[in-house]
Design goal:
The chain is of the alpha/beta class. It has a single domain, classed as Vaccinia Virus protein VP39 (Rossmann fold), CATH 3.40.50. It is built from 10 helices and 15 strands. It has an 8-stranded mixed beta sheet with strand order 5-4-3-9-10-13-11-12. Strands 6-8-7 form a 3-stranded mixed beta sheet.
Length: 278
């Protein structure tokens, strides 16, 4: 009933003030700056966490001193979530200019610009320029060569291995680039192959087929980098094996040090959400 009430309040507010921006409470005292049409971000207001198991995993895993990489950050839901854990630093990559502006605003709202850097660029397997769609909210993607020019923008693209500063410390990453994951992995093999990387949360929902890439290929690439695939139940704080093509999950957790991840997630204090704690 409380969730339904939040849905109703939001729908009334955006109809009365369709051009307004709102500051909504999020996790661990953080906030999200949202406006009409930002369906991915407002899902966090409706149910506490838009992707409960994956977001809960980050809240339970991250510790002070960790670095968080948000590749395909959109407006920053995952980045703000990471920033809500004291002492975590990070870098968020978002290519679409208008979306990057919203990402920056969310870092400012949460007073996190001293710990998190928002870079307006894409991430791929080679430095250069690629076209991105601009009108699909959290589902914008790299436009294939035969994609119409309408509603696209050219954006600088970097390799993750070239973009990462030379620092030590545990790394947790999220990769959600609407099917372009293989290029990200190829251009970030040195970084992701490092023993510093604890976990990668990656979208594995078949969207790579747009570029001729299967989820099974992504699983193989991650295995070659030393990861094993898992899913996480945020309520019981337990891990289970994952496999490609699982219709029940749109994301997969790839873990390098399962023992450390298990210990951290079990020992973490409850995270505070708008609908209770987790």
């Amino acid at each position: 009933m409380a969730a339904l009430g939040r849905v109703v309040r939001w729908q009334i507010a955006v109809r009365l003030l369709p051009a307004a921006h709102f500051i909504l409470p999020f996790a661990n005292g953080s906030s999200l700056a949202v406006c009409r049409g930002m369906e991915g971000a407002t899902g966090n207001w409706y149910g506490g966490l838009d992707e409960p198991d994956e977001m809960g995993f980050l809240l339970h895993l991250l510790r002070a001193g960790d670095r968080f990489l948000d590749i395909g950050a959109n407006v920053g839901s995952y980045t703000v979530l990471a920033a809500s854990v004291p002492g975590v630093t990070g870098v968020a990559f978002e290519p679409v200019p208008a979306t990057h502006h919203r990402l920056r605003r969310n870092l400012i709202v949460n007073d996190a610009t001293d710990r998190f850097e928002a870079r307006q660029c894409g991430v791929g397997d080679a430095a250069g320029v690629l076209r991105f769609t601009t009108t699909l909210d959290s589902m914008n993607f790299v436009a294939p060569d035969d994609y119409p020019d309408d509603d696209t923008v050219e954006v600088r693209v970097v390799r993750l291995d070239d973009a990462m500063p030379d620092r030590d410390g545990p790394i947790v990453a999220k990769i959600d680039v609407e099917g372009f994951e293989k290029a990200v992995l190829t251009g970030g093999a040195r970084t992701l192959g490092s023993e510093d990387v604890l976990a990668v949360v990656m979208e594995t929902n078949g969207s790579g087929e747009r570029y001729g890439v299967t989820d099974a290929e992504l699983f193989d690439l991650m295995a070659a980098l030393g990861f094993t695939p898992h899913h996480y139940d945020a309520l019981s704080r337990t891990l289970s094996p994952a496999r490609p093509g699982d219709p029940a999950h749109i994301n997969t957790l790839f873990l390098k040090d399962v023992a450390t991840v298990t210990r951290r997630t079990r020992e973490a204090p409850p995270a505070k959400l708008v609908n209770g704690s987790l």
